[in-house]
Every structure is written in structure tokens, then in C-alpha cells.
Design goal:
Helices cover about 25% and strands about 30% of the residues. About 40% of the residues are buried.
Length: about 300
């Protein structure tokens, strides 16, 4: 099974602290690297995580609050200094295009690569990225400004070849891909060996949902139903539920409620308010509702 990992680069909220960096993650799936959000300090965190800058093919921005996008122009500038030639794709609300173009005109007007902007409508569920191995779909959220999460859905892989059967029937290596794609094998005497006998079923496709800044949404669980791993913001604990409502954020208990109702396998939470020194409170509160909850922290890697 090829890697499907979530690298946590930053899991703090808007106010900078010495403990946490602003929001950013890298999704590693089938040897591709996608970034979700890019707050200040993301480049330093990439260095610390030993993640190659050049492997980032796209950046998905959830919304236009600074702790989720202030790092983008610096990232583009650094990629230019590193001699990048491959296009970099940016997915964000349409208002970000004007901001990005103005910044690039001042700071990045002689890049050796193309920055391709893709407009995202955060109010609808829509496939915004699609290749041979993964689709990325928007998840509409409820924040103070237009905001969406992203669902990374691995596509169904081909079945696994059984080496013992390949050897037993002396099947040439050049025919293996045909068998993976459903072809049978015929012996010299005309006997047909069905491909199902020569393979084992493929691994089930995996799914990761990233739910950035949002107030509690009772219907959100329907969009993230059954995902293998859910990241849901948990800016506050229940002692500040009123603040969560006022600023369109969630509590740890509300994040856990979404996970429980969606029947997800695992929940990870982050975007902690700087007012909390003891983050174990988030974990205790969430686990009372959804036991398989973990806290995010910088440099942690969650594997699906």
C-alpha cells in the first residue's frame, strides 16, 4: 500500500504564540504532495519536516484569514529561488487571485515557473482536483467569511498480483499489467485461468477530510461520512462555547460530535486558542464523545 500521510506543520489559531505555528498541513498520497493552508512560518516547518519544497504540486487555501494564507507569497518566492520549473497550482476563493497577482507583481515578477490559479466556490460541494489516483472535493463550512474544507479521496487501486500463481503458470512479466486490469490468462491447451485466481482484491480507497475554521454544523457529518481520518478545528473548549458561537469556531466537544455522527475511524483536532496552556483539556473533552481522538502538534505525522 502506497503512503497516505498527513504532515502537521502548524496547528495554532490566529494569534501567534511560541508554542504553535499558524495552520498548514501537507497531504502525502501515492507519492504526491499537496499543501492545505499556508500560514506564516510554513517554510521553516517544511525544512524541519524534511519535506521537499519541489514536491509540493498544489496549495489548497480554506479561506482568506491571514493565519491560513499569509505564507503563500513567501513560498512562491522561495520556490523561484530554488529554480522550480514545474507549475504550482493554487486553489482558493476568487478574491485571493487579485491579492496574489498584486503581491507577485511586486515580489515575484521573474519566476521560472507558472503559478496557476483555480477559483474555488466554498459554498458548494465540488470536485476541484482530479487525477489518476485522487480527487479533492470542497466541503462548505460556516465561518465569518467564505470558507471551505477539503476531502481527499483516493481512487480505487488495481488488484494485487499473486506472485505464486504468476510463477506457477509461468506468466511473462510483460502481461502482468493486463491481468491487473482484468485480463485472463490462457494456457497452451486452451484452459483459461481467470484473473481473479491470479490476483487478490485491491486495498479499499482511503479518505481524509480537512475541516478548517467553522462553527458547529449539524449537517457536516453527511459530507464526511465514514472517512478514515477527519481533521476538525477545535479552537475552544466548552468553557468558551459562547466565544465559539460568536466567532464561528468549534469546541472540542462539537468536533467530536461531528466525528461520532459521521462514523469516522479517527479524529484529529487543532487550531487551539492561545488562551489555553493545557491542551489536554481538548483531548479529554473530545474523547468523552468520540474515543478515537488525537491532538495535532507540529511535526506529527498521521498515517492512514
Amino acid at each position: 500500500m502506497l503512503p497516505f500521510k498527513i504532515h502537521i506543520l502548524g496547528c495554532g489559531s490566529a494569534l501567534p504564540t511560541l508554542k504553535h505555528y499558524a495552520s498548514s498541513q501537507v497531504v502525502e498520497i501515492r507519492n504526491k504532495m499537496f499543501m492545505i493552508d499556508c500560514g506564516e512560518g510554513t517554510q521553516l516547518q517544511l525544512r524541519r519536516s524534511k519535506t521537499s519544497f519541489s514536491k509540493i504540486t498544489a496549495i489548497f487555501i480554506s479561506h482568506l484569514h491571514g493565519d491560513h494564507c499569509f505564507g503563500v507569497i513567501g513560498m512562491i518566492s522561495t520556490l523561484g529561488l530554488l529554480g522550480r520549473t514545474a507549475p504550482l497550482h493554487i486553489y482558493a476563493h476568487e478574491d485571493f487571485k487579485k491579492i496574489l497577482n498584486e503581491e507577485m507583481e511586486v515580489f515575484c515578477n521573474s519566476l521560472g515557473f507558472e503559478v496557476v490559479f483555480h477559483k474555488v466556490d466554498p459554498t458548494v460541494v465540488d470536485i476541484v482536483y482530479d487525477d489518476r489516483s485522487v480527487t479533492v472535493t470542497t466541503i462548505p463550512l460556516d465561518h465569518r467569511i467564505p470558507c471551505c474544507g477539503y476531502l481527499f479521496h483516493e481512487k480505487q487501486a488495481l488488484p494485487h498480483i499473486r506472485p505464486d500463481m504468476i510463477q506457477f503458470y509461468n506468466i511473462p512479466t510483460c502481461y502482468i499489467n493486463n491481468i491487473k486490469n482484468g485480463a485472463d490468462w490462457q494456457l497452451d491447451d486452451g484452459t483459461v485461468i481467470p484473473h481473479t485466481r491470479l490476483t487478490t482484491p485491491a486495498d479499499a480507497p482511503r479518505k481524509y477530510a480537512y475541516c478548517s475554521d467553522t462553527k458547529y454544523m449539524p449537517g457536516l457529518h453527511k459530507i464526511v461520512e465514514g472517512v478514515d481520518l477527519l481533521y476538525h478545528e477545535a479552537t475552544y473548549c466548552n468553557d468558551n462555547k459562547e466565544l465559539a458561537e460568536a466567532y464561528h469556531h468549534s469546541t472540542a466537544a462539537q468536533a467530536a460530535t461531528v466525528a461520532r455522527d459521521a462514523h469516522v475511524k479517527r479524529l484529529i483536532i487543532g487550531h487551539y486558542s492561545s488562551r489555553y496552556q493545557d491542551e489536554s483539556r481538548f483531548l479529554e473533552e473530545a474523547r468523552e464523545i468520540f474515543a478515537n481522538t488525537e491532538l495535532t502538534d507540529e511535526m506529527e505525522v498521521f498515517e492512514i
